[in-house]
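Marked as duplicate of an earlier ticket. Keeping the data here for the record.
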Amino acid sequence: MAEAVDPDIRMLALAPTSSAAANLGDMAGIESRTVASLIAGGGHGIDSRDVLVIDEAGQLGNRQALRLLEISRDTGVRLLLLGDNRQTGAIEQGKAFWLLQRLGLPKAELTESMRQQTRLMRHAVALAREGDYAGSIDSLDKVVSGSGPDGLARDLVSEWTRLKRENRDNTNILVLDNASRIIVNDQIRSTLRREGVIAAQDMTLQVLTPSPLSSEERRMARFYSRGQVVMFSRDEARQGIARKAEYRVAGLGREENGRQVVRLVDELGHTIRWDPRLTRAAQINVFNAEERGVAVGDRIQWRLATKDLGRKNAERGTVIQLDGPIASIRWDRAKDVQSVDLTRFKTWDHGYAETVYSSQSKTYARAYILAPVNSPLVNGQNYYTAITRARFGVKLWTEDPERLADRLVRRTGEKRSALEGLGRLDLSHAEAIRTRHGDRLRVARAKTDAERRDATLEPQMPIRRGSIADVARSATDALTALVQRVLAKERSGEKDQPTQQPDRARDDKPYRGHSR
């Protein structure tokens, strides 16, 4: 991508997750960062020479998309959005990518699947995209059914562990919820321990698993529960909170004015009454504290981007040595070996199976998918996202393929925009708005362009009359003249100074001062 554009144009890869941003950056040969980090900096350092290439744009919530558009307006930077409306959408409110297209965003559609390399896989993906889930399921390599979720998990693990080592590495196990992921991971570890792939001796450590709270829920005290762990990305001096420290939720309380607060306990046992509404949601990370065993040979996955370690979220690696809680991990992406204190950095988990959401933007040769019909996260979007991760083939485990297909039809997973519900999509289309407010929009755009041009040219222009530098120079000259007059007056006063009077005489006469 970098080689195909004008050398004067700077390109930056963005994505909602750090792993997706890194993948795009590596493939395109350009710098990468997360959408959240760009927004936190207010777009500092970018201008009209830049193009922001935003992958997995379907995961953008309304607020993030709005801030990107505002940054584009203020800086002149251009946006190139990449995504698939059928894949898993944003966790936060809204479906901005779909809405932008529906309201008139210019677009180019790629209708042919490029990731899938076999005729059957392309056919299965095309049918799922059209909503024919029964036909899509029939086109998969294999469908295993007939038992409950635990039995399906055991059968999936048994088939995966029969693969050769190199085939295991190219076959990803996808589940639709964290409960299924934990079951599959535990069963795989038991099998690998019997095979001698991982050591027999486990070390049990505490891990912090992300709690699925939305940005709005993180700012409301009632959504917090006892035992959760809260970490902050910035200091909150007003409330006595330090960034990166762990705070355990002890319960909820109320202030005298009736406002609900969260009672946090720090590592020294001090209690803080914290009002989430006073903290930006982007600065709050909420976790559930759990226990995991880890052994030499284990596969682990990092669950939160960690700048101190240089790790992206969803990165995987293999534990090659354990010295107490200090693990030497060989990471897949960079092929580097890193020592990590797992009692200090706790945002990891076993890395055999992963959820569909964390797999988005990744590609594997083959995928094994566990889809219990009654899982609350079984829906059309998750199914479509899961099967599109594989290039050559997919095997599916579910209790009943017909029931699964019926559920996917009924539960598409797609959000409904407020503009849809109010019937205002046509009124809000770009053409309709231009018709109603064309003159005002042209004036506003001309004003914005002029302000941006002035801001760009101002540092290059010479100092003008009345500028801050002129004011400072005038003040300096005036101060110098004043000092010179005072010194001259003091020198003349020293010659005419009268003889000092006795203290008694000074006490008899009141001091009157000098008249002006």
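See parent ticket for discussion. The two ends are 78 Å apart (CA to CA).
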